Amino acid sequence: MTETLRRHRLTIAAAILLAIAFLLYSPRVVEIHEFGGATMGTTYSIKIVDLPSGLGVEEFAQAVTELLTHVDKEQMSTYAPESELSRLNRSPPYTPIAISAEMAEVLGLAIEISELTDGAFDVTVGPLVNRWGFGPQTSVADVLDARIPSQPEIDSLLQRVGYRHLQLDRQNLTLLKTADVYIDLSGIAKGFAVDKVAEYFDDAGIASYFIEIGGELRIKGYKPGQQTWVPAIEKPVDTAPQVHNIFYANGESIAVAGSGDYRNYFEENGVHYSHEIDPVTGRPVSHNLASVYVIEATTARADAMATAYMVLGAEKGFELAQRLNEAVYFVTKSTAGDGFEDRYTEKFESYLQVR
Ligand code: ADP
Ligand code: MG
């Protein structure tokens, strides 16, 4: 073998080794796939890192659209006259009604959260939500004529409110209403839908995702390069969205929901009427709590708890959050000026740092 040939062979061998080394050590290009759309009177946006092989993002986008349409229009919406919930609301009391497994699951959780929050969260508050103008509207004129209901009117609507009027049989999938109740799932359904999308992704073997419907989140894994997902706490102002604070998922699977009185409200004679209704007084809550964020294992639970805290207010809410050892972040309007004051539980504090 000549010297040149030997050198040539060595060069080829080195090149092959280099190529193998490159294949082994070069970071694979990991993409974030994004899609979104409209659902439940709001928008959704989804980020998936690293699709399972052989599947395209379009297939996932299509499946998510179908899933959300099902949960919204066919099951939980009070805006769709033929949804399961609308039919349930029209059906007479004292007759057991057959319900879907999903409806049983969401109602079971709703009742559990009502018990946990002493009735601050109550899906039977629907008649009052509608009367105060925050439901699927009857007629705008009706509402504007006498936007603020009289006390006797509130008292009469309160007769139909109370989660104890719901007798749920989770084994046999039936619901018995013991009063003429009207159920509104707006305080929990978005979170529930997020969980359904997460379940679907988990089953499909997706290791990292960020699911958001109308601000309610479910997060898993890391962004490319082991970067933590960084959810934001929105500034409680009704202008264009601004970041108030951020926190870190740190690779944990977490669910987050926020509630606030700063987007969905109306003002009359200088009074601010929020879409969160206190099921005890039958009136929109009025206190200095501007928004609240809850981190939980499921988004449905976080969603319902966030609504409950908005009803309870900063003082009682903080007490309950501590007692339950839940990760909760409260933003209150400060008494002086137009600033905000933040208060969070110990459990939430651990998400304020990168770990
Ligand atoms: P958002 O829709 O802004 O995320 P929430 O999750 O707090 O807010 O849901 C608020 C909606 O829940 C209201 O628009 C109303 O339909 C319903 N709701 C209002 N008060 C209550 C309550 N006390 N318990 C359960 N649901 C409520
Ligand atoms: Mg809610």
Question: Explain this structure to me?
Answer:
By secondary structure, the protein is of the alpha+beta class. It has a domain at 3-66 and 213-352: T-fold. It is 37% helix and 23% strand. The protein is built from 10 helices and 17 strands. The strands form 5 sheets. It has an 8-stranded antiparallel sheet. α2 (57-76) runs antiparallel to α8 (189-203) and α4 (101-116) packs parallel to α9. The radius of gyration is 25 Å and the shape is globular. It starts with a helix and ends in a 6-residue tail after the last helix. The site of adenosine-5'-diphosphate has 21 residues, from α9.
Please render the helix and strand layout as text.
Layout: H1 3-25, E1 32-39, E2 42-49, H2 57-76, H3 84-90, E3 97-98, H4 101-116, H5 126-131, H6 140-145, H7 151-158, E4 166-169, E5 174-177, H8 189-203, E6 208-213, E7 216-220, E8 232-234, E9 243-246, E10 254-260, E11 265-268, E12 271-274, E13 277-278, E14 283-284, E15 289-296, H9 299-323, E16 327-333, E17 340-344, H10 346-349
Antiparallel strand pairs: 1-2, 2-6, 3-5, 4-5, 6-7, 7-10, 8-9, 10-15, 11-12, 13-14, 15-16, 16-17
Helix pairs in contact: 2-8, 4-9, 8-9
The protein binds adenosine-5'-diphosphate and magnesium ion.
| Known CATH architecture of the domain at 3-66 and 213-352 | Roll
CATH superfamily label of the domain at 3-66 and 213-352: ApbE-like domains
Count of DSSP H/I helices: 10
Sequence stretches where pLDDT stays below 50 over 5 or more residues: 1-5, 17-24
Strand order of the largest sheet: 1-2-6-7-10-15-16-17
Residue-averaged pLDDT, rounded?
91
What's the shape? globular
Radius of gyration: 25 Å
| Quantity of strands, as a count | 17
